[in-house]
Structure formats: C-alpha cells, structure tokens
C-alpha cells in the first residue's frame, strides 16, 4: 500500500496497529485509524525509525517489558510493610513540623524496654514521624534509614506515671510500639502534642488497608511477588509468635469469665458474712473507742463521759498546765497512732507509762478522739442555732441563748462538754506560763468540736463563729454551765 507521501506501508502492520489502538483507546469518529498511522510514519526519518514506531504501537505477547528495580523485595525481610511505606512511594513527603525533643522508646511490638532518654531531631509528616540524631543528618547521609513511627491508628496521651519528668506524653502505635516524648518548655511540648494529635486525627483509624487497594498500589510498582509474600505472611504467622498469639486469644476469651466468677463469689461472701453486732457479741471484734458515737462509748462504759477523756484530762492537769503551747503544739503522729491502737484494743490504759511521756502525744490523741466522732460534740441539729446565737449583739442575751442551747444537749454531750471546758478554763488560767489564751484555745478546738453536717461555701465564716463560740463558753464558763441560781 502506498501513502500520499509515496511511502510503502505493510497492510498487515497497519491492520495490527489499528487493532491495538482500538483495544486501548475508544474510537474517535472524527479521525480514522489509518490517519493515526500516517501521522506516526510521517514523523519518522528512516526505515529503522519506521519499524521502531510500528513496534511501539504493538504489545507482543513474546516481548518482555523491562520491569523497574523492585526496591520492596529487599526490605521485606527487614521491615514490615505499612501504609506510610506504600503511600510514601506515591506521594511527596511534606514536613509538618520538626525540632528537638527528648525521646524514650519503652516498648517494641508489645515487649517492654528499658527507658533510655535521648535527644532526637524529630521530623513530623502527615503520616509518620522520623527520628534523627541531629538536624542535618538527612542531608548529610541520603542513604540513612531513620527510625519511623507510623501514626495511622496510633494513640497519643499525656502521662505522669511513666516518668518522673514533667511535660511527658506517650504515643502508642497499633503494632505495640510505645514512645515517650518530653520537653521542659511548656509551650513547645504543648505545640508538639497538638501537631501530632492533629496528624493522627486526620488519618484513618485502621492500620490495614483493603487487599484490593493494596494490590492496585503494588501492581503499579511491579511488586507482584511482594503481594504474594505479604498475603502469605498475613495468613501464616511466624512460628515463634504463634504460641504467644494463641495464649493472648485464650486469655482474652477467658478473662471475662474469670471476672464474672470472682464477682459472683464476692457477692456470696458478702451476703453470708455475719453482721458487726454478731461479731461483737461473739467477742471477735471489740468495741472501738476512736470513731464511735459518743453515746455508744458512754453506753458501753456505763457512764456519761468516756473514760479515755477523763484519763487524758487528768494527765494534762497533772503535768501539762505549765507546758508552752499545750494543745497547740503537735505531738509525734506515729506515737499518737500507737496510743490510739492501744486504747482501741486494751481495756486498761496507763498514761503515766514512759512511752506516753511527751504530753503533746496525750493532747494530740484527745483532739483526735473528738475529731473522729461521727457526730461532733456540738450535735449537727443545733449547729445553725449556735451560729445564730453567737451573732447576737447584746452580750447578756448572747450568753443566755448559748446557755439555753447547751442545756438542750444530750446528757453524754453535756457532761463531756462541761468537763472538757472546765479543763480548758484551767489551761487559760495559766496563760502567762503556757501562752494559751481563750482565743488561742478557741482557734484550736472550734473546728474540732463544732462543724456543719455538710460543708458549704461559708467555711471561712463558719470557722470564725466556731472559734468565737468556744472562746465565749470559756470566758463565761460559770454562767453557761453553772446552776440555775447562779
């Protein structure tokens, strides 16, 4: 066949060319297939070029296309394929943030590692983080493979338990790797935290991608063998990991059953346990002095004033009236707790024993007794009435109102209060020696003896009135606790 330019074209070649074009492209009605062939031959200058152009339009089954170098195959035995690795071959890397941070890797694939802090130059991109020893290392060593963290499906959170350092946050990947990052500069670490969190939030939550998309991306890079190897590895776990995987699956499956079984046993135990009253009747549990209601202690001892209160008052009046800061200075807490244990476990108490030689231990235990009363010495039901009484401007009316409220107290409360305030009046009488005035004693015992059932926002105001009530009752002791004739 001869063209308009006088060149000879093999009809068979032309026919095969047209067939190939029709198979790969949709036919265009405005151009004939022979026109396309003429255009290609027109640009050729020699017989060799003409043959080359013809072959470029024909893909013979016997001709092997040169495949690009498979860079994935070499890395398969050393690294796991991640989404970041696949997409990094298709998309350019854009650095979102970079800078120095303290880094510590504490887990690798779920296996705990020893924490070792080191300074790293961190490069954050849209999908991963890379760690370098110094900022110029990527430019100095182009072939250097940095340590990477795939952020797809990762979790970021602040932590104060993994390190004693401040400003520490943790990143946990889906593969079980855990990293700690820290900086002493508050705004710097906060900026890094939000930058990484935003990058994680933009990524899909699932680490794995569908097999169809994976096959498409791998075929584009001519890595068919890699696809087959990846499928094999995903279906057949390595022998050394198979045993641990089975253990984890069995454990997670039986964990819920174990918890339910434990809960059931605890419920049965609690429902069958004997009551406190039964244990006390059998003598297995002795009545406690500290932490019990005042009327319960008095009822048990068949008195209106607890024996422990009487013993403490006698000991202080015997060897503590002249002590500087009595009731204000704190005793050794460990010794006070020891005295508390002895009082709760033994019936007889000798405060003259050498181990209770420090009088501040005795006063501390007495204050602890009143603090631990479930209901204070001034009952909750009369708290507001005492508050209103102390606000009365006329002093005589105020004293009369306080006196009438004190008379309303239950017998154990009244008798204990009368003995205690009589004792504190003796302390105030020695103010020149022990430096404890009625005002000082009001500050010490006000919140201890008088408190509301439910704390409100008026704590400071209440504390002021509590102190004033105790101070008034000490100053006017004879009028408040005296007989009616007085």
UniProtKB/TrEMBL annotation:
Domain PH, first and last residues per copy: 94-201
Gene Ontology BP, a term: signal transduction
A matching Pfam family: PH
A GO CC term attached to the entry: membrane
Cellular compartment(s): Cytoplasm; Membrane
Major place of residence: cytoplasm
Region span, Disordered: 1-35
Molecular functions per Gene Ontology: GTPase activator activity
Ranges of biased composition (kind: Polar residues): 1-22
Membrane topology: Peripheral membrane protein
The Rho-GAP domain, residue ranges: 292-481
Gene3D superfamilies for the chain: Pleckstrin-homology domain (PH domain)/Phosphotyrosine-binding domain (PTB) (2.30.29.30), Rho GTPase activation protein (1.10.555.10)
InterPro entries to which the protein is assigned, alphabetical: PH-like_dom_sf, PH_domain, Rho-GAP, Rho_GTPase_activation_prot, RhoGAP_dom
Keyword annotations from UniProtKB, A to Z: Cytoplasm, GTPase activation, Membrane
Protein name: Rho GTPase-activating protein 15
Organism from which the protein derives: Geospiza fortis (Medium ground-finch)
